[in-house]
Amino acid sequence: MSSVVVTGAAKGIGAGIAEAFARAGWSVVAVDRDKAPLEQTASRIGGTVVTLAGDVADRATNDAAVKLAVDRFGGLDAAVGNAGVTLPKLIDETTPEEFDRLFSINVKALMYLAQAAHKALAKSKGSLTVIASKTGLVAQRNSPIYVATKGAAVQLARALALDWAPEGIRVNAVCPGIVDTPMLKQFIDAMPDPAASRREHERAQPLGRLATPAEVASAVLFLATPAAGFITGVALPVDGGFTAE
């Protein structure tokens, strides 16, 4: 049975990824700093899912997640760095603390996961997938630090793909567009007219709707399987055509 570590697995895209792997018969180590919703998600998913509560911006959490997979399941076949946060602020409004927090979670956590998983993935000839964003490929207004972190995530995946190719490890980035998640709902509900805001987000997508976490998860699962055995170093948009414009 194949095994995977998924970070940021309590809600949204991460929960969708954990569920997709579990339903495909993988053993899952689901990681998130929010213990209660993480355990609720694991219970809902069923299958072989073990949870680890911890901050992925801490190297020790990533080490513990990989060790748990190896000890419990005999190895690690894939790792998915999904945990992330956003910051809709102009650069002049961004504090040093906010800058550090975004890079810690959106970039450093991916580096720590890569460091922790490297040897185990080399042994299994496995894969690492980082969840970036369409903003890792095209910029957007009013979120420069967030955009910078997602650009860094894409380039990290590409660079690791080259470095690790001789070891048989594949590394890719998945770049979602606007996904219908609890985080998005919270943002929309804070708008003066939530219904109008949602329609505006939907119209911004060439397909005319938002993505679902399951649709992003399907791409992530594919990249971890033998069907994607010759795919490495890509930044795959799952964005309804947004970056094609």
Please describe what this structure looks like.
The chain is α/β, with parallel strands linked by helices. It has 2 domains: 3-176 and 213-237, Rossmann fold (3-Layer(aba) Sandwich); 178-210, no CATH class. It contains 8 helices and 7 strands. The chain has a 7-stranded parallel β-sheet, with helices on both faces. The relative contact order is 0.15.
Structural class given helices, strands, pairing?
A: alpha/beta
Overall CATH class of the largest domain:
Alpha Beta
Helix content: 40-55%
- What's the total helix number? 8
Return the CATH architecture of the largest domain.
3-Layer(aba) Sandwich
E-strand count: 7
Strand order of the largest sheet: 3-2-1-4-5-6-7
- Runs in which pLDDT lies below 50 for 5 or more consecutive residues are none
Fill in the CATH topology of the largest domain.
Answer: Rossmann fold
SSE diagram, text form:
Elements: E1 3-7, H1 12-23, E2 27-32, H2 35-45, E3 49-53, H3 59-73, E4 78-81, H4 96-124, E5 127-131, H5 144-164, E6 170-176, H6 182-189, H7 194-203, H8 213-224, E7 235-238
Helix pairs in contact: 1-2, 1-8, 3-4, 4-5
List keywords for this structure.
single chain, 245 residues, alpha/beta, Rossmann fold, seven-stranded parallel β-sheet, 8 helices, 7 strands, 15% strand, globular
